[in-house]
User: What shape does this take?
Amino acid sequence: MKRRRVLFIHLSQSRVFLQKIAVLVCLLFALVLMTLSKVEHPFVLRLKQNLSTIINPIVNIVRLPSDGVYYVYTSTHRLIDACSENKALTLENERLRLVEQQNRILKIENKFLSDMLNYMPFEDVQFVTAKVIALKNDGFVRMLTVYVGQKNLVKKGQVVLHRNNVIGRIDSVDGAYAQVLLLSDISSKIPVMIERTQTRGILSGNNTGTLNLLYPSSDFNEPLMIGDKVITSGVGGIFPSGLTVGRIIDVSTHEIKVEAVESLDSLEFVYIVDYHLETPQDGAETTP
Amino acid sequence: MKETFKENLIAYIKACVPFLSSVIWLLLMMMPLHVPLFQMIKPDVVLACIYFWILCFDHSMGVISVVLLGLLCDMFGNVVLGTHMAVFIVVYVATKGYALWFNAKPFIVNWLGFALICVGALMMKWAILSIYHHRLLPILYIAINCVSTVLLYPLIAKVNLWVYNRYLLDDEAIHEQG
Assistant: This one.
């Protein structure tokens, strides 16, 4: 009887020891995963891709009830506002007709000048409209998950726009879903230019609502001002030049703050544009 | 033979209830609210669930369940793989160490205990991700996350307690008798 009790004590001690070992092994596994993520090891990328193919459809289903309620709310709201909106649109339509005429003249003039300069525009620019299925917009990460379908048109590095303004770029594609790294994410850095002064710099995210303009070039003596438009510079070959990014909202001695043009609050669809530019390779630095 | 298999299956499903309830909470939090202000409020409900179940029914919230929940949170939250896993394992060890002390204490004491654990866990997550990105992450959002998680804890505890009373109470009594 005594021997049996001793045996049970030994078993329970060894069980506690094994539990402690399991905790240590799991903690070690987590650290290894983090390290492998940092070096973008193929194992982690494959694991993420495989898990994403399971998780993204679940996220897509989970958001259905919320989307339904939101759809009913917005539809009702639109119906209520329809009358006043119709009046405003009629006025706008008349104004746009005049603008269209002016544009036609400008288009002809532009074609004439382009021919004179032998300018080669971007040809064969393709885009895909993708539905936003999840937005991670907290202090730890700023990313979108979008549904892109099974046609394999979307690739890593492609530009993501909303109403012709840049909001980010494709970070990874997992089957029918793609992850979009938003400009405000801490790991996002894109080469930009101030439209008015032609000052170049790097626009960096910091996981907040504003962006930081780093290393502004000092080739031009003209000071930067609040309200200056920030556009992509095209340096580095990831983004084409001239796409609107945001506006300067703070010019202090320490840092220049930029506010993105696009608000992410009501994002439903985005455009993924393929400019046929060089896309970054896995593991390569995305900054120029 | 059939009876034994059925009993084993039911016991196995019951053992998974804490894990499954945590997953359901996680999925509920994935629902977009379409309200601008609420988009940056992301309570860490799984953290609250782990804390609750370890205090309440720790036999079925083992380290493997915690690791799996961490992996799911990393995937759903799109953060670096292993971050939540490491944080949850530390929370698991810390909560398990004080589980006996918290036993039969008033709810407010449990809640205060959770507030401390939550601050520690989110600071750890913040430190890991700041080291990973070589930059300090904004502390404001972490503070909002922390406050919202702590404020949501009574609701999570209430729902989980209902699940516990409904599905697991008998098993617990048997476990204690055994």
In short: The longest strand of chain A covers residues 126-137. Helices of chain A lie at 2-38, 42-62, 64-117. DSSP finds three helices and twelve strands in chain A. Residues 2-39 of chain A form one domain.
